[in-house]
């Protein structure tokens, strides 16, 4: 069965829709036209539905033109179609359903849409009162043989194997679905004629379909070229099923639905060592053998709701969530966390506060009409403080700031989550950034020698909402992390260039209110001579042109400070137990000037313009760390290069070399000598030496 020509069919549809408009204006089908590709469709008849009769008819189109509908003799049973009408509130729900199956249709399994549809018909649903047509619904039916109606669901089940026990896919070069990929000879969608065009240039290796190749260490591959002479002594006897690509695309367990609680359960057996103390970076565990989780931001900028909290790693993140899909996080109240001692448990101490300014966290709000539904609370800020003692957790305190909203309110909510690890005997206001050297990611400690204000760090902007400087908050400058931030300064039409210049300077100076910066992470605030360096404030370029700086030339303000550059010099100052200690040697701030003009279009209305200001931080390590030149051995014997081969002979004794920093060098040497003594003792007590002693 072929489709009618498109132009006459479109003309017929337009003509019919013109005839099918509502007669009284108070009764209409929603929608008025449906393209049907499945076994059933539904629509709603709204308006005055009292004493209204709904019926179904099959229209016969001739040369693409549909006849003028009539409401004379219409029935609910029209051949293979049935009509069901269900009353609802001030409307009628109309359902048209196909009564038979598609067993008589022939289907092409390889190309489901290459043939014309199996059923092509036009149905008309009419609403009438006393044989007078009031509204019409036009249904265009196009059902293909290979649709889900043509066969049972159990006949088309795809079994997905467990990727843990599978190598790569059967054909990695098959990149296009439903089409033949050139030079991919394993593509099942390529016919024999197409494959013959590029059979001599097929992709080779794993990408071409050889997903289980012989790996280099296999003994059966000893005939490979460039095999070393010692290969037969150190090769591996392994079956071909044990491929090195086994589980290459396996990414771990997949959860069926997101967990709303403050912990996520593991789907695999976990080797939990938290009973013997935490180490830096270890995930914090609960008594239910699950990770203690708090929403965090990934490297891609997405908000992960079930991200584990690592021991001794602070973070401060913000997540934007829609109110209608946000979930309440009340699991923290009943959470029981392992403290690092066998059988030890610590329960968080939770305090609640109400937000003073809800509009700061919720934007683009929209409240739907509800029938007396009770309001609900959402958490906008969660602040966690972990007290640690050696490798254990002694106390957990949580402060939750929440907002009461309507149960059906919509909008964007910005949530903030902070985690801070503090020593059990330290205060909150003077936290170390390292001991003695700085740790990466810790705030840069600052001091104001004039004692004008209690400044403890340097800041950058953290914009929110429209990005205005008046609503921006501060975030600390973190050691070793280059950063760039900015905001928008509102400038009124009544301000002159001098006032704009003063406002910009005041705004940029608010970031650096200190006079000194700590060289080390544990410098004493009460002793300015204990490793504090003065901040060098470079003067702005001399741009004196002899003109009055308060007067603009042709509407242009010159020499406006727009950017603050902060350069921090750091270096390695030694090592403590094999861990490199870094310190700050100097810091410089410099302002960049720009020329700016008020943008007001044809007429300058009484509204503010926006002037962008920014600040950048750059860490420079001195002296410059040049790459180590390759040795003559690495140049001549590339097969022994650790960066090019899987076998690395120079690292055979890696634990006793200077490159290993997991333990102090003295302990590594002592353990190495102990192993050598055990080996010598075993050799001395072996059978050849025993016979010599007996003789």
From TrEMBL:
Q: Which GO terms describe its biological process?
A: cilium assembly; protein localization to ciliary transition zone; smoothened signaling pathway
InterPro entries, per the entry:
TCTN1-3, TCTN1-3_dom, TCTN1-3_N
Coiled-coil spans in chain:
none
List the GO cellular component terms. Answer: MKS complex
Give one Pfam family.
TCTN_DUF1619
> Could you say which residues form the signal peptide?
1-25
Q: Does the keyword Glycoprotein apply?
A: yes
The residue ranges of the Tectonic-1-3 N-terminal domain are 146-257
Tell me where in this chain the Tectonic-1-3 domain is found: 275-423, 434-622
Q: Where are the transmembrane segments?
A: none
Keywords carried by this UniProt record: Cilium biogenesis/degradation, Glycoprotein, Signal
What family, per the record? Belongs to the tectonic family.
Assembly: Part of the tectonic-like complex (also named B9 complex).
Kindly provide the name given to this protein in its UniProt entry. Tectonic family member 2
Taxonomy-wise, where does this protein's organism fall, top ranks first? Eukaryota, Metazoa, Chordata, Craniata, Vertebrata
Encoding gene (name): TCTN2
